[in-house]
Specification:
The protein is built from 16 helices and 13 strands. The relative contact order is 0.17. Helix 12 packs antiparallel against helix 14. It is an alpha+beta fold. The structure holds protoporphyrin IX containing FE. Protoporphyrin IX containing FE binds next to helix 5, helix 11 and helix 16.
Length: 431
């Protein structure tokens, strides 16, 4: 169980390649098996590297287990965050978020067109450069996508730059040591979150005063204001923050993972390119992509799912046992923390043949999808999974057709524990 209080937390959090399970889990599993006990984040903990057990935990949310993130996460995300609340309140705000995300995914021309126009304008801007940091560029792209659909802010608006700066400060602090001392990354993150919240709060006040709707279709904020959700202002702010935080770094991370793995698999890249050439040939010049096109991007979906399996954007989630729970030969004592580790199932040789190999064709077998859980599961399964995949697929369409590139060095994705590229994924643009 390690040292008093900190237990084995530092060893558990030690960065490692995200397409591996890291030395801590490797050693523990070799010694104690795929489910073992430890002391992490201040709590006695059951760590599970077993897919079946992970699914059991996730499927029993609110019955036997409950989402339970460490206190510093509460301070950074805010007490109303969807990730932290449970019961009826969770159900209520989740249904609002799901409504918005489903709406964004629907074939609403405005949304899809903006996604494509923005992807093309980013790709065009890269053509004038010799080198870009792909992960950083992707973060900016997905940030602007979220800003447009949440609060209808265009990339050129100075407010976008201010919120983007604050969001980056927030993200740095989210993964730092939780020391609330002025000047630390953690303290700066809490301040940055407060500033973004006040900006959203002021927008709500203005829209309520003017009773104006921004555009015909309405953005997410309009929908929250005019909808029949009866939400308090602080709840609306919290939902906007949740969607912004949860939706921008994950999708950009997914885009970067796809590009990283494609750079190592020329055959997969060529197959992907061919799929998009065929798709382009079917369209009238200038015609936008739509939901039907997305459904036809079969190999693209394999490429994306395989990047999620190998790259492990989200390594694990936090739960706690609500009562003594028996599962097979294990007993999890009430109050203990439980950490289902997704990456270990994704890279388990008993579940996946040659698990460390990036092989999109393995998704031809429909059974593969039952052996992974990149979006979690149960009541809290990610509501943005389809949106994140769709944005990545549409971006890839233009990326594989419009630009030639190669990665400058092997900037391997790291699990810190959130997925990160240490150098931002440097990419050379080829003329
Ligand atoms: C593209 C890659 C993405 C990955 C790998 C991912 C992964 C996850 C995972 C594993 C969870 C479950 C957390 C838990 O059980 O504690 C989650 C929850 C969530 N995700 Fe995603 N996500 C992605 C994209 C998105 C997008 C694009 C959005 C929104 C626009 C989004 C919004 C959310 C929200 C609101 C939750 C909380 C759900 C709840 O607690 O009920 N995600 N995500």
């Amino acid at each position: 169980m390690g040292w008093p209080l900190i237990g084995e937390t530092l060893a558990f959090l030690k960065p490692h390649k995200s397409n591996s399970i890291g030395s801590f889990l490797q050693e523990k599993c070799a010694r104690y098996g795929r489910v073992f006990k430890s002391h992490l984040f201040g709590w006695p903990t059951i760590v599970s590297c077993d897919h079946e057990f992970n699914m059991f935990v996730l499927q029993n949310e609110e019955k036997l287990f409950q989402s339970s993130y460490p206190k510093p996460v509460h301070d950074v995300l805010g007490k109303l965050s969807m990730m932290l609340v449970s019961g009826e309140f969770h159900k209520k705000i989740r249904s609002v978020a799901v409504g918005f995300i489903n709406y964004s995914c629907k074939p609403r021309c405005g949304n899809y067109n903006f996604l494509e126009k923005l992807s093309l304008s980013f790709i065009d801007s890269w053509k004038a450069k010799k080198e870009i940091l792909f992960f950083n560029e992707a973060k900016e792209l997905t940030f602007h996508l979220m800003m447009k659909s949440l609060i209808n802010i265009e990339p050129e608006d100075p407010l976008a730059a201010t919120i983007f700066r604050d969001l980056q400060t927030f993200m740095k602090g989210f993964v730092s040591l939780p020391l609330y001392i002025p000047g630390t990354a953690y303290a700066k993150a809490i301040k940055a979150r407060t500033r973004i919240s006040s900006t959203f709060g002021e927008m709500i006040t203005k829209r309520r005063e003017k009773k104006h709707i921004i555009n015909e279709e309405g953005d997410c904020l309009d929908e929250l204001l005019i909808g029949k959700h009866w939400l308090r202002d602080e709840e609306i702010v919290s939902i906007l923050l949740d969607l912004l935080f949860a939706g921008y770094e994950t999708t950009s991370g997914l885009m970067a993972l796809v590009v990283y793995f494609l750079s190592q698999s020329p055959l997969a890249f060529q197959t992907l390119q061919e799929e998009h050439q065929v798709l382009k040939a079917r369209k009238v010049v200038g015609e936008y992509l739509n939901w039907e096109d997305y459904k036809h991007m079969e190999f693209t979906s394999y490429v994306i799912c395989e990047a999620l399996r190998c790259g492990n954007l989200v390594k694990f989630v936090h739960r706690k046992a609500l009562q003594d729970v028996k599962f097979k030969e294990f007993v999890i004592p009430r109050g203990w923390q439980v950490l289902p580790i997704f990456s270990s199932a994704h890279l388990d040789p008993c579940l996946h043949e040659k698990p460390f190999q990036y092989n999109p064709w393995r998704w031809d077998d429909s059974a593969t999808s039952r052996k992974v859980s990149p979006f979690g599961g149960g009541l809290r399964i990610c509501p943005g999974s389809e949106l994140g995949k769709l944005e990545t697929a549409f971006f890839l369409h233009h990326f594989v057709l419009n630009i030639r590139w190669k990665l400058k060095e092997d900037d391997c994705p790291l699990s810190c524990p959130y997925m990160e590229f240490k150098r931002g994924l440097p990419m050379e643009i080829i003329y």
